[in-house]
């Protein structure tokens, strides 16, 4: 049963670009046991777009793989749900939370959250179309603070037959700027008779323990998994102080998995570099536990000076010169020498926050 699979699990969330197949493989090696695809648009699947089909591919040995679908038409979403079931998914989810303007302008993602009755109809169509896999819904708290209709959304999904609800603890307009509201997530868990999985600001074991007290069945992490993919191991084994060399070994493992997936010819290596450079825009945000034993927060930024070695100082740099240097060395299989790294430039990587599927 789904409740047994989810119980106590830290789910790797659906993330545009972030939930790519090689990164899911890396996270499974580091302890993830429930993974989700990137957001997949049902209409593009129906149009037989090759790139969209690549998003619903699971890798051999992936323990429990869910596909998240985005769409507004019940019949189209039902058709797509049946397709992903036939392609081997273990779960199919409806996206009611993506805040990105490109999608909300089309009525997808968080825009759907403004229409609970439509959520119900879509879930009903998906449940009717599948024969063996559960159907879930991922919601936000509402469109904005004046329209926090999360209980209405959750109940509509359950009325449509949803087997579980994922709740991101922010409104659409809140994006990722404000702290997640775990009291609201707890209210959903208390209000519906299906498992509720809470999502938002989970980065260290104390965050997971605090979230456990809200009555959720499981947790979901997105940015946390991008910043530190070993978060899944920490969920079961406790905090791990990863030094610079250990982190580099994990990043090199991702490069190996990416080359196995996209190839090591010129075209494949270009794809590998694009993704590694994108991931580097999250990896640099990792900081360890503070010397006083307290932990940084997801929403905060630690002051400079926490790095303990020249390598850690290099990995903490956010300027493009440093990120390009680290990326090229990883992809090229070269040593990463802090003394050989370019001087900091004035260009800072933008904060790559909008990853939610």
Short description:
The protein is of the alpha/beta class.
* DSSP strand count: 9
Name the poorly predicted regions.
Answer: none
Q: Which structural class do the helices and strands define?
A: alpha/beta
Percent of residues in helices: 40-55%
N→C terminal distance: 25 Å
CATH hierarchy: architecture of the largest domain = Alpha-Beta Barrel
CATH superfamily of the largest domain: Aldolase class I
Total number of distinct structural domains: 2
Query: What is the CATH level 1 assignment of the largest domain?
Result: Alpha Beta
Shape: globular
Radius of gyration: 20 Å
Strand residue percentage: 5-15%
The secondary-structure element order is: HEHEEHHEHEHHEHEHEHEHHHHHH
List the helices and strands and how they pair.
Blueprint: H1 2-6, E1 10-12, H2 21-29, E2 35-36, E3 40-41, H3 42-46, H4 50-55, E4 65-70, H5 74-86, E5 91-96, H6 101-104, H7 116-129, E6 135-139, H8 150-159, E7 164-168, H9 182-191, E8 196-199, H10 205-212, E9 218-221, H11 223-227, H12 231-237, H13 244-262, H14 266-283, H15 310-315, H16 320-332
Parallel strand pairs: 1-9, 2-4, 3-4, 4-5, 5-6, 6-7, 7-8, 8-9
């Amino acid at each position: 049963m789904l409740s047994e699979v989810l119980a106590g699990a830290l789910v790797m969330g659906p993330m545009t670009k972030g939930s790519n197949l090689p990164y899911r493989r890396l996270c499974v090696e580091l302890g993830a046991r429930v993974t989700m695809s990137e957001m997949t648009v049902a209409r593009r699947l129906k149009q037989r777009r090759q790139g969209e089909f690549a998003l619903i591919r699971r890798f051999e040995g992936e323990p429990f793989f869910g596909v998240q679908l985005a769409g507004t038409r019940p019949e189209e979403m039902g058709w797509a749900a049946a397709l992903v079931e036939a392609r081997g998914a273990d779960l199919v989810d409806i996206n009611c939370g993506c805040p990105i303007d490109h999608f909300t302008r089309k009525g997808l993602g968080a825009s759907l959250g403004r229409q609970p009755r439509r959520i119900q109809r879509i879930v009903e169509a998906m449940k009717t179309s599948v024969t063996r896999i559960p159907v879930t819904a991922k919601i936000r708290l509402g469109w904005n603070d004046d329209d926090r209709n999360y209980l209405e959304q959750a109940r509509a999904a359950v009325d449509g037959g949803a087997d579980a609800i994922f709740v991101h603890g922010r409104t659409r307009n809140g994006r990722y700027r404000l702290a997640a509201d775990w009291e609201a997530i707890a209210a959903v868990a208390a209000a519906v008779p299906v498992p509720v999985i809470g999502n938002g600001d989970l980065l260290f074991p104390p965050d997971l323990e605090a979230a456990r007290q809200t009555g959720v069945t499981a947790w979901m992490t997105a940015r946390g998994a991008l910043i530190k993919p070993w978060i899944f191991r920490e969920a079961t084994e406790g905090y791990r102080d990863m030094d610079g060399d250990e982190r580099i070994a994990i990043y090199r493992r991702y490069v190996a998995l990416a080359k196995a997936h996209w190839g090591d010819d010129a075209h494949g290596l270009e794809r590998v570099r694009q993704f590694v450079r994108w991931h580097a825009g999250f990896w640099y945000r990792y900081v360890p536990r503070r010397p006083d034993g307290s932990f940084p927060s997801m929403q905060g930024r630690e002051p400079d000076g926490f790095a303990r070695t020249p390598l850690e100082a290099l990995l903490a740099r956010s300027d493009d010169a440093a990120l390009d240097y680290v990326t090229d060395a990883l992809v090229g299989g070269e040593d990463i020498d802090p003394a050989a790294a370019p001087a900091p430039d004035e260009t800072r990587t933008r904060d790559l926050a909008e990853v939610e599927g």
